[in-house]
Amino acid sequence: MDMEQQFLTNAFTNGHYGKAATSGATKLRRLLDESSDLIVCPGVYDGFSARIALSVGFKALYMTGAGTTASRLGMADLGIAQLHDMREHAEMIANLDPQGPPLIADMDTGYGGPIMVANAVEQYIRAGVAGFHIEDQVQNKRCGHLQGKMVVETEIFLSRIRAAKFAKDKCGSDIVLIARTDALQQLGYQECITRLKAARDVGADVGLLEGFTSKELARQAVQDLAGWPLLLNMVENGATPIITVEEAQEMGFRIMIFSFASLAPTYTAIKTTLEKLKREGVTGVGKDLTPRMLFEVCGLNESMKLDFAAGGLAFAGGI
Question: What is the DSSP string of 185-245?
């Protein structure tokens, strides 16, 4: 056994790879509690986009509901994805690297009344999700950056927040509960502030006002909810004008998610490549994009090390 194999074998057998990891929820809560830095989360929609984000290096990730619906179901973000779709997707992404950054995930409306909301939260906790946002749209919801949204009465929204808080407390979890309101379009800014204050008062950890229509409104929300962390959802070419990471930090936001950061450029790249294939008969991808390189993004080297350290022979002849 050579020196490298001995080192890997010792690491494996001594529990280095099985060392208990701090939960994603605890990591996210520490990021909120122990620093004033903005937590920037790229939106990821499947295992591959998540792997790429992990390779680039971010303090946290965000699983987009729109991207999950598009990639998993091939459908528009119209409330079609249900709890099992979202939970299974989130569990896979959250556990790609148990030692890695925490994952915030979309939970839409909670998928039903208080009992279903509590069930959804418990499933997200068991899946390893670090935080989630739950909103006040009607069950027949749509993407927050489309027109025609409708929201439920305030008390129904608060019942969702209370149920989520009950579930996380029951489980003794650090999972971060983010209250999201989509009421701006239908009921105006002041109603959004009223709803978020009420959600804060019943136990929400973070607030999210979806679909700011100006930078001034975003800045005002931070001021009106001072002392409570707010999340900014930056969707380029959506309802909100472009706000940079630096601007969001200066305004006082604590978390910033870029929901379409992976999904939108993926559309452009795939469509351009397939059009070239149809037109010219080749894809024209760069020579560095070999199968092995892509598999390395997806953990090939880690898998090889594990097999080697365990005494396996799967890769003895190379790869």
Answer: HHH-HHHHHHHHHHHHHTT-SEEEE---SSHHHHHHHHHHTTTS-EEEE--TTSSSPP--H
How wide is the angle at C-alpha 225 spanned by C-alphas 194 and 210, nearest 5°?
A: 70
Supply angle C-alpha 152, 156, 160, rounded to 5. 115
Q: Provide mean pLDDT across the span 96-112.
A: 96
The sign one gets for the Cα dihedral 191, 194, 200, 205 is: positive
Residue 178 per-residue DSSP state: E
The residues annotated as belonging to the active site are 62, 77, 106, 108, 133, 135, 143, 180, 210, 233
> Which sign does the torsion angle of CA 33, 53, 41, 45 carry?
negative
279: Cβ–Cβ under 8 A, 6 or more apart, which residues? none
Q: Please determine, for residue 13, whether its predicted confidence score (pLDDT) is greater than 50.
A: no
pLDDT tens per residue, range 31-75:
999 999 999 999 999 999 999 999 999 999 999 999 999 999 999
Contact 88, 126 (CB under 8 A): no
